[in-house]
Design a protein that fits this description.
With 98 residues, the chain is α+β, with helices and mostly antiparallel strands. It has helices spanning 27-36, 76-82; strands spanning 4-14, 20-24, 46-52, 55-64, 69-73, 89-96. It has one domain (4-96): Elongation Factor Tu (Ef-tu), domain 3 (Beta Barrel), CATH 2.40.30.100.
Length: 98
C-alpha cells in the first residue's frame, strides 16, 4: 500500500494530563484512509511515516471522535527541529505503513 497524502493544517494543543500537540487530517483525507485501511480493533490507530519540513518520523494517526477525523501527534523534537508552534500552519505528508 503506497498511499501518500499531503495537506496543510494548523497545529493544536490538547490539554489533558500532559499537553499533546496534534495536526488534524482534512476530512477528505481521513475518508480515503478509512477506505484503504481495514477495520481494526482497539484504538483504530494507523501506522504512518510522517513528514513536516525536512523532518520525517514513524508514528501512528489516531481517530478522534470529537473532530470526526484522524489526528497526528507532533512530538516536541519535531516541533523544535522545524521551529513550529501550536497555532502554526504546517504542510504535512503522511505515508501509510504496510
Amino acid at each position: 500500500m503506497d498511499a501518500v497524502f499531503t495537506f496543510e493544517c494548523q497545529l493544536f494543543e490538547e490539554a489533558v494530563e500532559a499537553a499533546w500537540v496534534f495536526a488534524a487530517l482534512p476530512l477528505e483525507v481521513a475518508d480515503e484512509i478509512v477506505e484503504l485501511v481495514p477495520r481494526r480493533r482497539g484504538f483504530g490507530s494507523v501506522r504512518v511515516t510522517a513528514q513536516i519540513g525536512t523532518t520525517t518520523w514513524q508514528t501512528s494517526i489516531f481517530p478522534s471522535k470529537a473532530l470526526m477525523t484522524y489526528v497526528l501527534p507532533v512530538k516536541r523534537a519535531v516541533r523544535e527541529q522545524e521551529q513550529i508552534h501550536t497555532g502554526d500552519d504546517v504542510i504535512v505528508t503522511i505515508t501509510l505503513a504496510e
